[in-house]
Amino acid sequence: MDALIIAAGYGSRLREVSESKPLTPVADRPLIELGILQARAAGARRVVVVTGHEAERLEAGLAEIAARTGVAVDPVRLADWSKPNGWSVMAGAEAISGDFLLMMADHIFAAPILAKLAQQGAPTRGVTLAIDRRVTHPMIDPDDATWVQTDESGFIQAIGKTIAPYNAVDCGAFLVTPELPRAIAAAISAGKAGSLSDGMQALADQGRAATMDIGVDERDAWWLDVDDPRAHAIAEAEAPKYLPEIYG
Questions:
Q1: Which of 67, 130, 150, 171 has the lowest CB atom count within 10 Å?
Q2: In angstroms, rounded to a whole number, what is the distance separating the alpha carbons of residues 10 and 58?
Q3: Which residues touch 148 (CB under 8 Å, ≥6 apart)?
């Protein structure tokens, strides 16, 4: 299995910390390196990274990370990185055959989350999203979160930043089949902007968008969206504790 990491955006909320969000150091490790190493630990044999903003700088950094870690990393450059994140998914998926782990460059996870997610494939699922039911957890930024409403069986009914009601939050990690990039493309053809959530909602409407609850264990269910200076400070303090497989 391959992994796809989206890293094309501008990262405006983290600009006062770093000019390149994916290369932002977290306890002396670039944020994108944490994602790459976590993907490998979950079983990915290759990591495709979609670049855009400051692509040349990021791609040089990826080459250094690949050489340092021994992980096969292939960049795919998105020409118009101002487009919604679903365009990055489609671009990256073109370089991948079969199912893959999908991650956001600014999200980091306790190892059990991705390891468990990688095993969630089933014929009844076009995509599986890692979700957190702890919707009021202080680590979650309610102004930036993507919310999820699931049915009793854990399949998604609605997903988006402004939906109501909701009973979970999107953790930013997915097990994806080729159905998702096709759903994003179909949503664009139908007049949508092309966000990842557009494709997820399309699959949800077909009963093909499943979830995986990460649970409530403090160590095994730890994750963080490193999207602003506050979150970055938390990551600096806590990542070495919750990611021992990386920091030792």
A1: 67
A2: 12
A3: 129, 131, 156, 158, 159, 166, 167, 168, 169, 170, 211
**139 falls in which pLDDT band (50, 70, 90)?**
confident
Tell me the domains of the chain and their CATH numbers: 2-247 (3.90.550.10)
d(CA 63, CA 71): 10
Q: What is the CA radius of gyration of the chain?
A: 17
Please, are residues 224 and 231 in contact by the beta-carbon 8 Å criterion?
Answer: yes
| Strand-pair partners of 160 | 147
Rounded CA separation 183/119 (Å): 22
Per the CB < 8 A criterion, the answer to whether 5 and 219 are in contact is no
On the question of pLDDT at 10 being above 90, the answer is no
Residue type, 17: V
In 3D space, the residue among 109, 141, 127, 97 whose CA is nearest the CA of residue 197 turns out to be 127
Angle between the N-to-C axes of helices 31-41 and 55-69, in degrees from 0 to 180, rounded to the nearest 10: 50
Report yes or no: 126 and 208 within 8 Å, Cβ to Cβ. Answer: yes
- What's the DSSP call for residue 92? H
| 64: region left, alpha or beta (phi > 0 left; psi from -120 to 50 alpha) | alpha
Q: Classify strands 127-132 and 29-30 as parallel, antiparallel or unpaired.
A: unpaired
